[in-house]
Amino acid sequence: MAKLKIGVLISGSGTNLQAIIDAAADDGLPVEVVKVISSRPDAYGLKRAEDAHIPALALNRDIYQDPERADQLIVDEMLSSGAEYLVMAGYMRKLTSVALDAFPNRILNLHPALLPAFPGAHAIQEAFDAGVKVTGVTVHFANAQYDKGPIIAQEPVRVFEGDSLEALEARIHETEHMIYQEVLRKIAEGKVTIGPDDKVSVGE
Hints:
Rossmann fold, 2 domains, 9 strands, 204 residues, alpha/beta, two-stranded antiparallel ribbon
């Protein structure tokens, strides 16, 4: 099977990037990371890319003064690297129509809650503070609405009595690593389709 070529967008430590890199190397995940782009030059994920010999590019705050210009740079870099999909892995910038139109229904986002519950940047904290008994992780296609794109997969994560926020975060991050790899495998195998109603079908 031909490997799915992906570009990964990061802003921070890059743990999900590392999980993808490791799974592709050790577990036979049919994915090749062809480019990593960070919205921050000090993101540790850039070191992870360097260690894995993956071409990487660091953007900075000045470039994002014009979000469309930044996204055009991302698109140009990713297309020239052969990326078929963009994978947001802790990327803390909202993509504009420049990127969304260049990769229609081919940009994945990971959210640490069961959307539509707890959208936004503080989902784990908000779920913890709300006292819910179950939260989770969502993988969805990115669109023009923040955290509202078509849902591909969700995985619940229980909140136990006496849980600390740190313990919940750790279980959610473990779940993120698992579900992102499952979705990427399904896409590589051609088992993910999206209909005209924006409903996603995932085959076995």
